Amino acid sequence: MTAVRPDIAPKPAPEAAQFPAGFVWGAATAAYQVEGAATEDGRTPSIWDTFSRTPGKVHNGDTGDIAADHYHRYRDDVALMKRLGLTAYRFSVSWPRVQPTGRGPAVERGLDFYRRLVDELLEAGIAPVATLYHWDLPQDLEDAGGWPQRLTAERFADYAEIMAGALGDRVATWTTLNEPWCSAFLGYGSGVHAPGRTEPAAALRAAHHLNLAHGRAAGILRDRLPATAQISVTLNLHHVRPLTGGQADVDAARRIDAVGNRVFTGPMLSGAYPQDLLADTAHLVDWTELVRDGDLAAISTPVDVLGVNYYTPTLVSAPADGTGDSRDDGHGNSDHSPWPGSEHVAFHLAEGRKRTAMNWAIDPDGLYELLTDVSRDHPELPLMVTENGAAFDDYVSPEGRVADPERIAYLHGHLDAVRRAAADGVDVRGYFLWSLMDNFEWAYGYSKRFGAVYVDYATQRRTPKASAHWYADVIRRNALPTAPVTGLG
To answer: What residue spans carry the Basic and acidic residues bias annotation (predicted)?
Structure first.
């Protein structure tokens, strides 16, 4: 493992923009993307194991079988986190590693890995932030119908109780779900994510049952954990903008906001699904049958923190010819829409913006606007940026260094957006870089690199990129340089 090298760390600017005292500085990963050890210690297949083995679903036929081998190298990885100065590490638990069939007793060998990881983090002075679900549903539960089936939400509640019992004495912050929009609408709508189904009605049913799973799990965590524990959910809220101020474009934005955001924030934070969403999707599902007595009360179990993931805004319009094109919306190529009830919407790439390797427009103002909008709508709810980052075409130079000035510029702009939001009164308490290290990027396989640390997958050698050194300096000073640092090597 390569240590962080102070000799190539960027020099601090003479003036700096401070973050609030006690601001949490972290990085995030997900189990299937980094752990590997896909068949060890009792772990059984998840939907992503199955999906990645299905020809044509993942770039280059890549799988998460080895990934970044975090399962075996977690001690070195935690030592690297400590050198970077991280104060928190957001990881996810692999459901099939601890409860292989999604039902019944836990496998202690699987739980032991997370006990060891958490102990290592605490020893290093890094707060563990545990996410219960980051898309790796046990395949057995998908075989029984998956998230479109109500029983899956009840199984998730049982799983949450297992994890609370195993780690509740040492993990103070818990996240129920990561980006349920992706689980529901990319997994069951467009089919570009596992399990690869293309059923609009099933996607909406999955969304409700993910909401219910969150509520059931939040209630159990509240009952089982110490009173000081923080309970959260992480949403990839779409910062939706209409292409023009015309009524048709504004209505297109409303539709995407409904099925992209308010399908979750409505029941979770306000105890009700928005009426326009119900009307837009009434031809697909019978909401009066789907939502049962007591569901909304469970789903709206209060959370202590809302996690917000942001990468790029969403620009939409009404299509000129009356038909929509949802294939160029930043969520993978598919002939099927991930936006049920909003198929007749056109998506656009913002002009005049630099782009990441994902072809996502770089727009820090979108993050500032998103944070301020959420704070305005829910002023009493603390926020945490739980994912933000960018993929670029990184490589190791002959001198063994990774220069990524584009990522540094990206991070500088987005961290400044967070700082500005905090200065303007938004209660934003921390930032988690996506991602700690290069990893399996879902349907893109290993072709996209989001990490601050470069991973050579053939050797598993870790090399901190220039952005890792830059981020470490920001953390050390709890402040942002007044200008981006570029040209680092």
So the answer is: 324-334
CA distances from 264 to 141, 177, 278, 381 (A): 22, 11, 13, 15
Residue 204 phi, psi dihedral angles, 5° rounding: -70, -40
The answer to whether residue 488 scores a pLDDT higher than 50 is: no
| Terminal alpha carbon distance of the chain | 18
Catalytic residue of the set 35, 120, 142, 179: 179
CB atoms within 10 A of CB 283: 10
Strands 346-348 and 453-456: unpaired
In sequence order, the 6+-apart residues with CB closer than 8 A to the CB of 123 are: none
Provide, rounded to the nearest whole percent, the portion of the chain with pLDDT above 90.
91
The rounded distance, in Å, linking the Cα atoms of 203 and 52 is 20
Whether 369 is catalytic is no
State the CB neighbour count (10 A cutoff) for residue 413. Answer: 17
Q: How confident is the model at residue 333 (pLDDT cuts 50, 70, 90)?
A: low
Neighbours of 204 (CB within 10 A): 25
pTM over 0.90: yes
Quick one: three-class SS letters along 88-140? Answer: EEEEECCHHHHCCCCCCCCCHHHHHHHHHHHHHHHHCCCEEEEEEECCCCEHH
Distance CA 466, CA 472 (A): 10
The CATH number of domain 6-481 is 3.30.70.360: no
From the candidates 387, 399, 406, 441, which is the catalytic residue?
Answer: 387
CA dist 74 and 85 (Å) reads 16
Residue 406 known to be catalytic:
no
